[in-house]
What we know:
The chain is α/β, with parallel strands linked by helices. The chain has 14 helices and 19 strands.
Amino acid sequence: xxxxxxxxxxxxxxxxxxxxxxxxxxxxxxxxxxxxxxxxxxxxxxxxxxxxxxxxxxxxxxxxxxxxxxxxxxxxxxxxxxxxxxxxxxxxxxxxxxxxxxxxxxxxxxxxxxxxxxxxxxxxxxxxxxxxxxxxxxxxxxxxxxxxxxxxxxxxxxxxxxxxxxxxxxxxxxxxxxxxxxxxxxxxxxxxxxxxxxxxxxxxxxxxxxxxxxxxxxxxxxxxxxxxxxxxxxxxxxxxxxxxxxxxxxxxxxxxxxxxxxxxxxxxxxxxxxxxxxxxxxxxxxxxxxxxxxxxxxxxxxxxxxxxxxxxxxxxxxxxxxxxxxxxxxxxxxxxxxxxxxxxxxxxxxxxxxxxxxxxxxxxxxxxxxxxxxxxxxxxxxxxxxxxxxxxxxxxxxxxxxxxxxxxxxxxxxxxxxxxxxxxxxxxxxxxxxxxxxxxxxxxxxxxxxxxxxxxxxxxxxxx
Length: 464
Ligand code: URP
Ligand code: ZN
Ligand code: ZN
């Protein structure tokens, strides 16, 4: 067979095994994975000494999101360029229904924003803020059109995004029939708002600054909501996914529920695995880290790592929602006005490799599971995405496990003028990223084309 490209001599890393092999690519697909493929004159990329990974899939990003009085700084074009530079070959963003509005209209609007801009493949989760016969019908229509996951926010009352327990309960009931999955941002809206009101005084703000973000969101404001959502999943038999889980207690609750047979899955993010809420104590820069849920404590970090190792946490995503220092400055000393979110998609793979595999928490196969295979399986893209096997999309990263990089936002593609990980020493970096066989990034520089990315229709019923 003639190939368009052969990746030679690399160590292919899959979710369950690793082996030295060549990978032959034809028409954007993996055509062969075996030893000693003959190139017969087609282009060859030597990957000796490198890992050949399935591209990472970031199932949680917010590009050009109107939020907190501004718009997140990485749009679909630059955000997907940044993703490619970081070894991410598929992202899933959100299309959030306006309260009282149409879910399908939200999807159409988001697709109109994304389709001509995306540089790698992408999909959308629906965001449900309302429940009525129209929402129910549209949810089912979207499932048959390849949007098979729906986010509900248990907070954000004032933004009009909050889905109350009745909405969540009915959404979960529907998943038992259509095989989709409800993703929840689990925080306790009413207690959270009460605590914010209590601390929102000039005296407190002068004394604590950005650290009030942490004082108003103790761990119980997350784990109570996680427990409640799991209760509804257990009683309805519905399919539930906890997004950006940040506390050790919540991870234990998920672990217990999984053991009981509840259909619940969970993700965490690098910021919760690698940072602690000490970041908010920095008077000059603490507000930059404002994200929601906020970064928690050492014991939470430890609990999240343990549960990631024990497979109670299934996926690591980023919740990328980039705001630069100018946007963050809108807080003017008031913690309730911080635009919530941070950059992340570009550093997902190198950070998780350095601190997961490098620190011996994770095998390199587990890394592939949590960044690639599990996201593809749970969100209905497997085996097209999430593996390197004949017939799968040639979404491939050639990763140098020994490359040392001192992280500097100036060298990144993101439209962000700061990084939560500035100056951190990393070992392991994506050198080449291929999207459907096309080279889209090399040594941290984007070399692909705007609009090359395709919208991926997903299947319902995914599991890991
Ligand atoms: O602070 C964050 N994470 N902003 C994005 C919206 C969300 O809550 O996921
Ligand atoms: Zn905690
Ligand atoms: Zn988010």
